[in-house]
Structures are given as C-alpha cells and as structure tokens.
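Lab notes, practical 5.
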Amino acid sequence: MAIKRFLTVAGLMTVLLISALVVIYSKYYSRLLFIKIQEQERALDQYEVEWGQLQLELTTLTEENRVELVARKNLKLRVPLREKIVYIKP
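Output from the prediction step:
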C-alpha cells in the first residue's frame, strides 16, 4: 500500500514538474515572439517614414514649374508658338 502511494505521489510530482517546464517554455517563446513583433513594427514605422519622404520627393519632382524649368534649362526646350501647336483628337 505504501509503495502504491509513493508511486502515485512520484507520478504526480513528475507531471507537475513537466507541466511547470512547459509553462516556462511557452512563456519564454511568447516573449521571443513579442520581441520579433516589436522589431517588425519598428521596421514598418521606418518604411512608412521612408514612403512619406519618397511621396514628398515625387510631388516635388513632378511639380509643373519644376518640369518646365528643367526642360528649359537642361534640355534647352521652349514653349512653341500657339499657331505651331497641333491638337489630335482621339
């Protein structure tokens, strides 16, 4: 009877120990995942900042006045006379 009781207690202690180790491992793993999520969120924030900067740069570069200035200065283009413009209807 004492041996049966001892084996029962030993079995329960083993199950308790394994359960505690599983809880520790799952907590550790969840912290690792949380750290990775935070890193990805920081990277996403950086990409959003860079995207905003690129949008601003695109807006600046495609501004009508800038295009005209670059065309005149670098390409030596000029606006044609009104009578030289040909309109094509689709």
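Observations recorded by the TA: The two ends are 101 Å apart (CA to CA). The chain has one domain: 2-75.
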